[in-house]
Amino acid sequence: MTCPFLVYSCWQNSGSMVSYRPDAAGKTPFFEGPYMQQVREEGIVLRRVDYGETSAIVTLLTRHHGLVACMARGMRRKGKPGLSGVLDTLNRVECSFTLRESRSVQTLTEAALLDWRPALRTDPVRIACGAVLAEAALQLGESGETETLFEVLENGLTALAAADTPKLPGLAAAGLLQLVHAAGIAPVLDCCADTGEPPDQARFLSPDLGLVRLQRGIPIARETALALAVLPRGDVIPDTRTGLACLAALAGYTGMHTGRDLGSARVLAQMIYAENKHENAL
Predict the structure, then answer these.
(1) HEC profile for 239-263?
(2) Are 167 and 215 members of one domain?
């Protein structure tokens, strides 16, 4: 007689596990739950939210599975300080988790640190620029476009870690533009999309088209339009002031597509304005 509490597991060629359990009478097994798969993946930590007294929900942008939210149980216990540091925001990690398609939050089983980006954490402005790219990747990933976001985000964070301070806002704008392009919603920037005129004639950044002269959108200055036009080339990075203007315009453009405010871009601008005001007062 079959034990009614016995669970049978059948591993398919794909590595997924299907679980069956006999009913109370020990008769024909029935389907117990959804497909499960143990996944080992490389990912970038985008967000970490404390859960309960000792756990946290960590959102990762993974190389092959896109955005994955994982429950890291017990990671904030006093006896596990290392795991908490491994899962800091912007860290690149190798992690293992149990994937169930029916669940929005997966179970994290293991995490190892690959790169904690020490150069990126040298000053608040640099880390704030990284936060802009992480928030944008999170929002664009939630829209379902994740195939190349991992590589673009990794390259953007690497560039920020190596850049001179005056170029940081411009590099953040360039990284945001690359993320938008990877998500398939890149704006037209080489001319006015509504009239065909050169980009220096643009007066707005339209969420539907890109640079425009007559149609309404996000108001931009002439120098901002020119900087946006050469930004995709990657070899011309604007100064701090123009870089912030480009970043603000692209953050507004991204927000119009995702339906959410890119708040980290506004925080970055406030930080830089406060630093400049302090330096001018000395």
Answers:
(1) CHHHHHHHHHHHHHHHHHHHCCCCH
(2) yes
Same domain, 51 and 150: no
- In the numeric block, which tokens belong to residue 182? 């990877």
Whether 264 and 131 have beta carbons less than 8 Å apart is answered as yes
> Can you say whether the dihedral through the CA atoms of 33, 38, 44, 49 is positive or negative?
positive
Q: Is the pLDDT of residue 82 over 80?
A: no
Q: Give the CATH number of the domain where residue 50 resides.
A: 2.40.50.140
**In the Cβ-directed half-sphere of 243, how many Cα atoms lie within 13 Å?**
23
In total, how many domains does the chain have?
A: 3
Instruction: Give me the domain span that covers residue 4.
Output: 1-33
Is the domain of 74 the same as that of 160? no
Tell me the pLDDT tens digit for each residue of 151-210: 999 999 999 999 999 999 999 999 999 999 999 999 999 999 999 999 999 999 999 999
pTM, two decimal places: 0.84
109 & 179 share domain: no
